[in-house]
Amino acid sequence: MAKILVTGGAGFIGSNFIHYWLTNHPNDTIVNFDKLTYAGNLENLADVEKNPQYLFMYGDITNPEMVDNVMKGVDIVVHFAAESHVDRSIKEPAAFVKTNVLGTQILLDAALKHSVKRFHHVSTDEVFGALPLNSSEKFNENTAYDPRSPYSASKAGSDHLVRAYAETYGLPITITNCANNYGPYHFPEKLIPLAITNILEGKKVPVYGDGLYVRDWLYVEDHCRAIDMVLSNGKIGETYCVGSMTQDVNNLEVIKKILKIMGKTEGEIEFVKDRPGHDRRYAIDWTKIHNELGWEPMADFDTWLAKTVDWYKENTKWWQDIKNGEYKNYYEEHYGK
Ligand code: NAD
Ligand code: DAU
Do the domain assignments include residue 312? Predict the structure, then answer.
């Protein structure tokens, strides 16, 4: 019966993780500590808010008093809280440095002070930079860091701090560097939910540049299971890379798959201005977590993608509330009216 502090639990992956954990570890208690930025949404957790094993605490990881208070009695920290959108980091980098770097350091201090048994840091493959198109190269746990956006630079900074606290102070840590997640409760600023919801609204799907950029796509529930396996059997101090794909699928191909699932034609695609410094290709070698912990995805990309489309069809109110709210201004500023 562990007490688990989940930071950023009202966001996309954090809320999926809380659902996953309450289902698979019903005797543990979860405290969800979240600042409820534009990306935090308690609707994601409406079905568990009365669960006696679950507690929401409003708070900011950059506030040392709040963090010290919430850390009391915690066994395990699973740290998701971050500013997570690359395009926003290009427009306003300061919030990324504050939350992702300073916020992580404040959490690490409190975790050390309160002797937590594990600090698990959720990071990204973007810290490794970009791979060339049409190559067989992949990121792995030994790839040198080469972040290229303010977002990935801030996540790289947080990874270094987490390792520094392990080396210097002996904090028991683990890190996962994972690929692009997709699935339920994904904020519609990100490619897959943006594409699905735009199609449902009868709008075009904006594709940056030539659309030949490649991401490694990881279904969010597979990711949550990977974190569970690292918490249960991962080695203290180690990093695990979590990807899912076995072959490259570029952004245009992803959109075409979605259009096909939804019975639409490629006429719905609109090429728009590219992202500055756009990383060409990500691909993860997930051999280590597979061989050491037995992790692998439960289904292939096409299967999970179809399931994801169904979720957005069945949960229109969830994404319509977001798209008609504050996000509308961001969308119009970013893509034009
Ligand atoms: P998200 O943007 O959907 O959610 C982030 C959550 O953190 C929100 O609930 C937000 O309110 C909260 N938050 C932000 N600043 C905070 C602060 N100062 N104090 C407390 N809470 C704060 O993000 P996500 O997509 O769920 O990503 C979660 C984590 O996983 C991040 O650390 C991200 O870098 C990492 N990651 C995400 C992906 C992906 O594809 N989404 C891939 C690799 C790694
Ligand atoms: O790789 C892991 C990372 O994946 C995470 O660390 C980040 O938090 C997460 O946001 C995600 O970053 P990306 O920049 O890869 O995700 P995004 O959904 O923004 O973009 C995916 C690809 O689609 C990328 O090549 C840019 C492109 N794109 C994106 C948007 C929003 C488009 O072509 N059009 C769009 O409108």
Answer: no
For the cut 80, the answer to whether the pLDDT of residue 44 exceeds it is yes
189 catalytic, yes or no? no
The three-class DSSP label of residue 152 is helix
| Residue 111 forms part of a structural domain | yes
Report which protein residue has its CA nearest ligand 1's atom 44: 124
Containing structural domain, residue 112: 3-185+216-246+282-299
> What tokens were used for 240?
């695990």
Q: How far is CA 212 from the centre of its chain?
A: 22
* pLDDT of res. 337: 73
Cα–Cα dist 73/2, whole Å = 10
Q: How confident is the model at residue 281 (pLDDT cuts 50, 70, 90)?
A: very high
User: At 19, which CATH number?
Assistant: 3.40.50.720
The reply to whether 300 belongs to the active site is: no
Structure tokens at 335: 């893509």
Q: Whose CA is nearest to atom 3 of ligand 2?
A: 180
Quickly count: other Cβ atoms within 10 Å of residue 58's Cβ: 13
Residue 114 confidence (pLDDT): 98
- Bridge partners, residue 56, by sequence: 32
> What is the model's pTM?
0.98
Cα atoms in the 13 Å half-sphere on the side-chain side of 97: 7
Active-site position among 34, 60, 83, 125: 125
- Whether the CB-CB separation of 234 and 291 falls below 8 Å is answered with no
CA 189–ligand 2 middle distance (angstroms): 9
Give the span between the Cα atoms of 268 and 255, in whole angstroms.
Answer: 9
Amino acid identity of 224?
C
Could you identify the atom of ligand 2 that is nearest to the CA of residue 149? 14
- Is 105 within a domain? yes
